[in-house]
Amino acid sequence: MKPDPNGPADTRVMVILHDALRRDLARTRRVLTAPGPPADTRRVAIAEHVIWMMEYLRFHHHAEDEFLWPLIRRLNPGAGALLDRMDADHARITPEIDRLITAAGTYRADDSAEAREAVVAALDGLEGALLPHLRREEDEMMPVVSRTITRRQWDDWGHDIVKNKPKVELAREVPWVIDGLDPDRYQLVAHVLPPVPRMILLHALAGSYRRASATRWGPQVAATPLTSTRRERRHV
Fold first, then answer.
1. Are 172 and 53 in contact (CB under 8 A)?
2. Which CATH number fits domain 9-164: 2.115.10, 2.40.50, 1.20.120, 1.20.1070?
3. How far apart (Å, rounded) are the C-alpha atoms in residues 89 and 232?
4. Residue 91 in contact with residue 65, Cβ under 8 Å?
5. Span between the terminal Cα atoms of the chain, in Å
6. How many CB atoms lie within 10 A of CB 122?
7. Which residues of the chain are in CATH 1.20.120 domains?
8. 226: three-class secondary structure by DSSP
9. What is the pTM of this model?
10. Partners of 8 in the beta sheet?
């Protein structure tokens, strides 16, 4: 049965986006703190991916600050104190994003232990500000959003974000978001994508993403949705 578009907003995709950030921040830390520094190709790939993630996070916050939070504030004045907390969190996170971008940019060109340690230190600062915010947004803010706007309003916001992003950015972002998802969460992400590019973004680009992921994290990391892994195993 098709969900009621006038029912409460289904905000579960927000957790999926947050989990993608948490997942690759943890992967970055594991690689950079493991015995033996990454070789040049891997070092550059990790540094560039960290910079890309921070630009993604900056855009994600911008989409909330400029569009979602004002809508909630207008429709639900009682949420003002919590929205102020979200704004304050973003203000604390922004300099940590900048610090990590700077450290990763240096590390991309400098294979010294000091440059690598600076990235780890910047990760510490970012996670100290970001991770509690993500949890607060999921546990406190998203229930308010769900009670305040409809599924249609939430979906329209998500579709507008996707529609206005360059195709080259979506080609990088979508495989990253669906990395490791189970079938139910995979379908939630697929629902946000317009029908025409859905097959390309979910399937045709999977190979290039897996190769890039293997360069960053190593071939032992299965960078594919769990739904795809199961399907492939059935045909082996």
1. no
2. 1.20.120
3. 42
4. no
5. 34
6. 23
7. 9-164
8. helix
9. 0.90
10. 150
